[in-house]
Amino acid sequence: MHCNEVLGCRTSSSPGEQDGGANLGDEGNILLRVVQLLSRNDLPFGEKLQQGLLILLQRMGAERGSIMLLTDDQTRLEVMASSKPSLVGLVQDIREDTVSGHVLATGEPLLIRDILGDERFKPRGVSYKTTSLISVPLRSAQGGHVLGVVNVSDRQDGISFDSDDANLLQTYAGWISPLLENCRLFEQVRQEKDRYKVLARELEHKRNELLVSTMERADLVQMVVHDFKSPLSAIIATYDLLLYMGVNAKQRRIIANGLEGAKNLRKMINDFLETARVQELQSDVFRLAPVDISLVIQQEVERIQIVLKQRNLILQVSTGSNVLVSGDSSLLAHLFQNLLSNAVKYTPAGGQIRVQLVRGKGHRGTDRQGSYVKFWVEDSGMGVPDVSKHHVFERFARASQAVDQGIQGAGVGLYMCRKIVRLLGGSIWVEDSELGGAKFCVELPAIAGCEND
User: Fold this and answer.
1) Domain 4-194 has CATH 2.40.30.10
2) What's the pLDDT at 26?
3) pLDDT single digits (tens) 133-190
4) Is there a contact between 300 and 292 (Cβ–Cβ < 8 Å)?
5) Which of 60, 327, 349, 407 would be a feasible disulfide site paired with 402, CB 3.0-4.6 Å?
6) Residue 17: its pLDDT value, please?
7) Residues near 411 by beta carbon (within 8 Å), at least 6 away in sequence
8) Does the predicted model carry a pTM greater than 0.85?
9) Per-domain boundaries in the chain
10) What is the mean pLDDT of the chain?
11) CATH level 2 (architecture), domain 287-445
12) In the chain, what percentage of residues exceed pLDDT 90?
């Protein structure tokens, strides 16, 4: 008489629950081998399951077997290990009219001594060769929910499986379930780590491509713009030569207009190239050193004297001497040159410009070191409206009244000033001047021991 059984003696076993069933003293080495195998980190998850299953099948004298685990979405079973390697990776829907689906749904182990006598699982095809089988659930150590099933079928000696065989498989399942869960989590973490590594490499590759493309494009633009300077210088020189050779009043007016336009274009080119150079600067590209900013200001004031006389502008300068800041002399020169040129541009003929350098506290409480040098350039020009004070340092920004009055400019000078000041660890802002125009103020870290005016 054939017997199909649902085993009720236990649903899982742990290492401390080894009473009853097969003689576990004889099986200790087999189980230990499997546990040690599953604990290894140098083998892929699937390989560990495959080797562990083969050890178990050899001990039980079974011809066939498999380990099936729930997919991540908990809707199907995937063959993770099998005595028939071609089945590994096969995914099937969970159906209670299959042995694995039934055990998964009920959570109970199943021993079938003769499958031909069981109407629920009777073979549906002539090629089905299994006669006796055991299916046991694999339970999570956290919460006890079913992770999958382990199946063995058909003893090599032709005898049906018995309760001792079923208890041995249950013990095996109890030992390996926590290890399987940990291994699977470890494998998922490893896969995620590998995926992020690949993603990081792809992002780095794209970033490098974008960086190279941007640099190449910027270099090309700078090269082309720089090449404009040579023919433009020839045009300016030709205009100067024509004026020197002597022309009539009408010709002089035409040549003067052309010369002014060429010089404005040259200034725009120089501003563009200087902006590109400043944009490329980082605080770790140049080395800060003590710089006498009072000397830098005096030198730039000397260079602009001719323009001041031509415009009949009054310039008052108060700087003291030996006022040291931590900075870069070329950047500081360009900073002050832009501020002074800006004041000259926006101050009408006969107007006033004032430059002053003092020691002072940090602007609006931003002084972190307690030793700052403050200088400003103010004028009697049109000033900067309140609505534009926060935007005037942005790239290509220009005050509306300057545009309305036709004052030439590219809107990059003050942008470069802010860039330089930030690189030097200072601050820059604009406020209204007592002279009626704008007052551009700069604070930079001072070096102890400089003169106090």
Assistant:
1) no
2) 55
3) 999 998 887 767 888 899 999 999 889 999 988 988 888 888 777 777 776 677 778 7
4) no
5) 407
6) 40
7) 395, 396, 397, 398
8) no
9) 4-194, 287-445
10) 78
11) 2-Layer Sandwich (3.30)
12) 18
Identify the residue with better confidence: 68 or 400: 68
Q: How far apart (Å, rounded) are the C-alpha atoms in residues 334 and 281?
A: 14
pLDDT given at position 355: 94
Q: Which residues pair with 372 in a beta bridge?
A: 360, 445
d(CA 68, CA 150): 6
